[in-house]
Design a protein that fits this description.
By secondary structure, the protein is of the alpha+beta class. It contains 25 helices and 19 strands.
Length: 870
């Protein structure tokens, strides 16, 4: 806020804005490489006179090798359309499940001629794919070409399952490429030249007309620049929603999206134009903190945010090597976070410099001796893993040297022993010791104890310890901001297969866990702001004071609602309820005000979050799908079909919420993509599978259980249950559910898992995972308390349970002691509570789990008797 009130003259302001816009323009060209063009490829063969019928009985597949990493579209030569409307194109690898599906209406196309199939689909350069060309209740004819000598990127052609030798499909493969380096350099040079000229002209103008070079605030400059940009952005989106109807044709969705955009625009314009409210001491992150410490704290927050980011990536790892890479990146950022707490003199000194030189030379030599040859599989990933190990050794050594200094100081200097470890701190030490003693070949516990042990020891003699709870809150919120931007750019909000949104993660469960501790943080921030708000002021003033916290709480809560996860809902309900109860014990009249504000925040933000998450990623068209867990169907795997109804919509979400949360029997979601083949009013198919007028017969046999669940593959309609949903229903793990136990059914087999783990518990723990009766491994117990007891023994499990329960008690007392000095002191209690509830049904205590990171960071102030602001 101090920056916003800074005074500058108009000449400086104009030049600053010019330089910022020029920088953005240059960055958009490189390294972001936003601007692209399309490069057309074809095999150069000659079109043959014969043609091939494509209908329900006949389809073709053309193998091709990806030349570049973005397949923009494919142009297929269609000679004539005899029946129906559509060309159906599918991309797969080695005849396996489709990666991508697309349908194109060619009824109005100029035929014979090339028909463009938009894709915007990411492929891997050099990998061979198969492109299938099929019918969709249609009949049309395609052409072939002969095979020239230099057709390296096209492979074999097949009719159904039989190869057609000596021919290729007459098609062009169009790839989207960034601008060439030469053109990029020319444009960047032109931007710099224009910027330099305008920069000089601004100086000449204001030097000549000095009376116009008046003073204004930085905030005023930002308003003048940001308001038009925001107006153009939101107005464009609103026009795209209606009347262009780019994203959906249905009236309820159009209305809902327009409301969401209006709310989003209102929030943005208020953020740009509002007048800052002076806050009471203790509410702002940086109130009463010196400038040098502010810079340090922001750096620590960012490092902490990156720790949680890489822990999140660990949870998304499809293979061990990716999880190991994420884990090592997380440890590196953890070391950086600790090092940022030290002063310059504590870092730059003789012992540290000696270690730096020696470890760097030894590390470089070790890397050179052990690096994997490029002839081995995944050599680049293995070498990166090795490199990260060397970096950890170098940074970790500096951390350890300084931690040893702290321990020596504690032992030798009696005056330094004013820092007392609390009873909860002793309990934490006991838990850490038991995890190491009964580690049972598990190394992650040792790493966990090592990194957090170093952090806790460092905090004993760091003056910033009194502000550490603020830093944790800021670091978590910074991580959410980074994750939110990534999510809006790369994570599609799809209606199929499951329709449940996992945020960053490959499973909804992990996404729910992440949002639990983020929402716990937002709950505390909002409650603290409301409690500090004068009671005699009205709703308008409350919004002016707490609008940022309201938006933050509403935004995170909306994403938690998108998960349609009972674990998330229960945990968030418990966190909010207990925070309200604890806060209200001292501020009895605030319960209703806080609850009403939270409800209002969710109601306001939900349409905005829903709309932006549905619309923005489809425009960016660079979706990230995790190899395992992500279940978006093939109709939305590319970036061209912005209006595909298999994206999330209002009806689909309401249907999910009613069925999954309220256990209502709501029937099937029945909205087709294909309005040309499907009569929505009568619920009838207009054409049969061959493109003939439908005689009313069904397309599948009702006595076939599997087919009765599925619409026919050749129906372009999102009706009934999808194939992936069927696979989930038929998943082999379902055979372990006790069908005679209603609670086992409702908890997806967790009661069975709990019984197995309880029967296997012992005093020393296990190195191997638990198993079902047939010998199949169980990944985890879906319960953190049981999992710790199983892995490390009953004693460790008991201590862990006491550690969580005691944390709740100590956390509540810590807040009572420090609420006036530090309103955010309730954060530890809120995060422990969210962790405790989530642990009942999920495994959330692990080195790579972001919920574990949040838990162990938040409890740091509870480990000392005299933590708090003096």
């Amino acid at each position: 806020m101090e920056i916003m009130r800074s005074i500058v003259d108009k000449k400086t302001a104009f030049r600053a804005v010019l330089l910022i816009l020029a920088l953005i323009a240059v960055l958009s060209i490189f390294p972001c490489r936003i601007w692209t063009n399309v490069f057309e490829t074809n095999d150069g063969g000659n079109r043959l006179p014969d043609e091939q019928i494509i209908n329900y009985d006949y389809s073709i597949s053309q193998k091709f090798v990806a030349q570049y990493d973005r397949l923009s579209s494919v142009d297929i030569y269609v000679d004539s359309l005899e029946k129906g409307h559509y060309v159906f194109v599918s991309i797969s690898e080695n005849f396996e499940t489709s990666y991508f599906n697309a349908f194109v209406d060619i009824s109005n196309a100029k035929l014979p001629g090339y028909v463009r199939v938009p894709m915007e689909f990411d492929v891997e350069v050099g990998k061979e794919y198969s492109m299938y060309v099929k019918s969709c209740r249609s009949k049309y004819n395609v052409k072939f070409t002969d095979v020239p000598d230099n057709s390296q990127y096209l492979g074999s052609l097949y009719l159904n399952d039989g190869e057609i030798p000596g021919k290729h499909l007459d098609a062009k493969f169009n790839y989207r490429l960034p601008m060439s380096k030469k053109l990029s350099l020319i444009i960047i040079a032109a931007i710099l030249a224009v910027t330099a000229a305008l920069y000089a002209l601004i100086g000449i103008f204001f030097n000549k007309f000095k009376e116009k070079n008046s003073l204004l605030t930085v905030g005023k400059v930002i308003k003048v620049v940001a308001n038009p940009i925001a107006a153009v952005f939101f107005l464009t989106l609103m026009i795209m929603v209606f009347p262009l109807r780019v994203f959906d044709l249905r009236v309820p969705d159009i209305i809902f999206y327009e409301i969401g955009l209006i709310i989003s625009a209102a929030i943005v314009f208020y953020a740009i134009n509002h007048k800052a409210v002076k806050l009471p001491n203790g509410i702002s992150f940086f109130e009463g903190i010196e400038l040098a410490d502010k810079v340090r704290y922001v750096a620590i927050m960012f490092a902490m945010a990156m720790v949680v980011w890489h822990a999140s990536n660990y949870m998304n790892g499809a293979y061990d090597i990716f999880r190991w890479l994420s884990q090592r990146r997380m440890v590196i950022w953890f070391a950086v976070m600790i090092l940022l707490t030290f002063t310059t003199s504590e870092i730059i000194n003789v012992p540290n410099l000696i270690w730096l030189v020696v470890s760097a030379v030894a590390g470089f030599r070790y890397y050179r001796l052990n690096m994997v040859a490029d002839t081995e599989k995944e050599y680049d990933l293995k070498n990166m893993l090795l490199k990260y190990g060397v970096i950890i050794a170098i940074l970790g050594g500096i951390v350890v040297i300084n931690v040893i200094r702290i321990l020596i100081r504690y032992i030798t200097d009696k005056t330094s022993r004013n820092v007392k470890i609390s009873g909860y701190g002793i309990l934490t030490i006991v838990l850490f010791a038991l995890m190491i003693i009964f580690r049972n070949e598990k190394l992650w516990g040792i790493v966990l104890v090592a990194i957090f042990g170093c952090l806790y020891i460092r905090l004993t003699y760091w003056k910033g310890r009194e502000h550490f709870i603020r830093i944790v809150a800021g670091g978590l919120m910074m991580n959410f901001a980074i994750s939110l931007v990534y999510c809006l750019l790369h994570r599609y909000f799809t209606g199929y297969v499951s329709g449940r949104f996992g945020f960053l993660f490959h499973t909804v469960t992990v996404g729910a866990e992440y949002l639990i501790f983020m929402d716990a943080t937002a709950t505390v921030l909002l409650a603290a702001k409301i409690v500090a708000f004068p009671k005699n002021l009205g709703v308008k003033e409350l919004f002016k004071s707490a609008w940022k916290e309201m938006i933050l709480f509403g935004w995170i809560s909306s994403y938690a609602i998108f998960t349609v996860s009972q674990t998330a809902y229960l945990s968030l309900f418990m966190v909010v309820l207990m925070v309200l109860i604890i806060v209200s014990t001292r501020h009895k009249k605030q319960f209703v005000r806080i609850l009403a504000t939270m409800i209002a925040a969710v109601i306001i933000c939900f349409p905005a979050v829903f709309t932006l998450q549905r619309i923005v990623p489809t425009i960016v068209a660079r979706p990230v799908f995790h190899e395992y867990g992500d279940d978006a169907d093939q109709f939305v795997r590319g970036g061209a079909a912005w209006g595909n109804s298999n994206f999330m919509c209002v009806e689909r979400f309401v249907n999910l919420f009613e069925s999954e949360v309220l256990s209502m029997d709501v029937g099937e979601y029945d909205y087709p993509n294909d309005i040309l083949n499907y009569d929505f009013e009568n619920g009838k198919y207009i054409y049969d599978l061959y493109g003939n007028p439908n005689d009313g017969e069904e397309d599948w046999e009702e006595d076939d259980d599997e087919q009765a669940l599925l619409p026919n593959e050749n129906l372009l309609a999102a009706t009934g249950i999808t194939r992936a949903e069927l696979a989930m229903l038929l998943d082999v793990s379902s055979q372990y559910i006790d069908e005679d136990n209603i609670w086992d059914i409702r908890t997806n087999g967790r009661i069975t898992l709990f019984k197995i783990y309880l029967n296997e518990l012992n005093m020393t723990g296990h190195a191997e995972p638990a198993k079902f009766a047939d010998g199949t491994d169980i990944y985890h117990a879906h319960n953190s308390y049981l999992q710790v007891a199983y892995d490390h023994g009953i004693l460790t499990g008991i201590v862990f349970t006491i550690f969580i329960i005691a944390g709740l008690v100590v956390g509540a007392r810590f807040y009572k002691k420090n609420e006036e000095k530090e309103p955010l002191s309730l954060l530890a209690f809120a995060i422990i509570l969210g962790f405790a509830v989530a642990s009942l049904s999920e495994w959330v205590f692990d080195l790579g789990n972001p919920m574990t990171m949040a838990l162990l960071l938040s409890i740091a102030p509870l480990l000392f008797k005299n933590t708090g602001r003096e």
